[in-house]
Specification:
The complex is a heterodimer. Chain A is of the alpha+beta class. Chain A contains three helices and six strands. In chain A, strands 1-2-4-5-6-3 form a six-stranded antiparallel sheet, covered by helices on one side. Classes of the chains: A alpha+beta, B mainly alpha. The interface between A and B is small, with 10 and 10 residues.
């Protein structure tokens, strides 16, 4: 038997090296929490930065979007056939960063739905590290279309 | 009509891209094709209309919101 977390992740339209979700810890109609550990061998550490590997902000943003928008959106659609046909796109973001994330660090993403109407999902989120420190917070929006 | 038109213009103008001016809005303006409002911002226009007029617009009514005029027609039906 697959867990709900495994089922949701299997439906995501991402694969290596661009999947940034390890586990969904909790999900409801209005809330999702998940985590991801950044492997030190990830491709972006080779160039960001030249001699000091630090997780890029765009990758943290992507991690939040995959957990807080895509996975929550798949859960809300609750229809494998619709999900398989759906096209998704991020349409807006507003993010403040507070802490660096280094190779092999685990982050926890919490996202609260503001609305999911007419195919647009808007959420407010927080990402924390395992010490409970705030890494980044903000708002993200995405569109889920059944047809484009 | 005039009151709705001015109110709608003030809602729409928030979501206009930089290259479209509020003066470009006419009753016949197509929100997506002429005013270049993208599908994500169109959702926010609809949500603002719902809030302003205290109405609910259903998923299948989104198609009726193609021009400024047709949006006013829908608002009138809903607030009648």
């Amino acid at each position: 038997m697959k867990t709900l977390s495994e089922k949701l992740i299997a439906q995501l339209p991402y694969s290596q090296p661009f999947l940034f979700v390890d586990e969904i810890e909790e999900v409801s109609d209005t809330y999702i929490r998940g985590n991801y550990t950044f492997d030190e061998s990830a491709f972006f550490y080779k160039g960001h930065f030249k001699d000091t590997p630090v997780t890029p902000g765009v990758i943290l943003t992507e991690c939040v979007a995959q957990i807080g928008l895509s996975t929550l959106g798949i859960y809300l659609l609750d229809d494998a056939e619709k999900v398989a046909q759906a096209k998704i796109a991020m349409v807006g973001s507003s993010i403040q960063f507070y802490k660096l994330v280094f190779p092999n660090e685990k982050v926890i993403v919490e996202s609260n739905k503001q609305y999911f109407r007419f195919g647009k999902l808007k959420c407010s989120f927080k990402m924390k590290n395992t010490k409970g420190e705030l890494v980044c917070e903000g708002e993200l929006a995405g569109m889920i279309h059944n047809e484009i | 009509m005039e009151k709705h038109y001015e109110e709608l213009k003030s809602i729409i103008k928030i979501y206009l891209p930089e290259d479209v001016s509020v003066d470009d809005i006419t009753p016949k303006s197509h929100l997506v094709n002429e005013l270049n409002i993208n599908s994500a911002n169109l959702v926010d226009v609809v949500l603002d209309i719902e809030e302003h007029y205290d109405i609910t617009i259903e998923d299948d009514e989104m198609d009726k919101l193609d021009t400024v005029e047709s949006a006013i027609t829908l608002i009138k039906q809903k607030t009648a």
